[in-house]
Write a structure and sequence with these properties.
With 142 residues, the chain is mostly helical. It folds into two domains: 1-34; 38-141, no CATH class. It is 56% helix and 8% strand. Strand 3 and strand 4 form a beta hairpin. The radius of gyration is 31 Å and the shape is rod-shaped. Bound molecules: zinc ion (ZN). Residues 71, 73-74, 76, 102-103, 105-106 line the site of zinc ion (ZN). It holds the Pfam family zf_Tbcl. This is Probable zinc-binding domain-containing protein. Residues 132-142 have a biased composition (Basic and acidic residues). Residues 65-114 form the Probable zinc-binding domain.
Length: 142
């Protein structure tokens, strides 16, 4: 026969074990819930420093998440993915207040257009400097 004292101690121990188990469950649940699937963590140290007031949404949140947007050139809906955002801000050092405005296709076209403009500009400079060289050449060697 168990004494009342023993029974009380057993019950107490049981309650303690149950409380510990619940604490552990709560602890395990606490971590992964706050970042949705597909989101990318933000590393504030890698961001380009900015002098403006305020903290961008994604820094406050602590992660990047897929972000739908409408292309400003062709109007198509596209998703700026969490991984692309992380690359843009942390690798390419894009301004933390800038967001994607063009779809992939229009971005490629825009880049091609800029490259072409740069090439034409470069050729123009080359022609000018060739002209100068020719003038210099004719005055010194002629
Ligand atoms: Zn577009």
């Amino acid at each position: 026969m168990k004494s009342n004292k023993q029974r009380r101690q057993e019950i107490k121990a049981q309650r303690l074990r149950r409380a510990e188990r619940q604490l552990q469950i709560r602890h395990v649940n606490a971590r992964p819930v706050d970042r949705p699937i597909g989101a990318e963590p933000v590393t504030p140290a890698l961001l380009r420093s900015n002098n403006s007031y305020g903290i961008p949404d994604f820094v406050q949140r602590g992660y990047y998440q897929d972000r739908p947007f409408r292309c400003k050139d062709c109007g198509i809906e596209e998703i700026w993915t969490a991984a692309q955002q992380r690359w843009w801000y942390e690798v390419a050092q894009g301004d933390v207040w800038t967001v994607a405005v063009r779809c992939r296709r229009c971005r490629q076209q825009e880049r091609a257009r800029k490259d072409e403009a740069r090439r034409i500009h470069g050729e123009g400079l080359a022609v000018k400097s060739m002209g100068r060289t020719h003038e210099d050449g004719s005055s010194t060697n002629g």
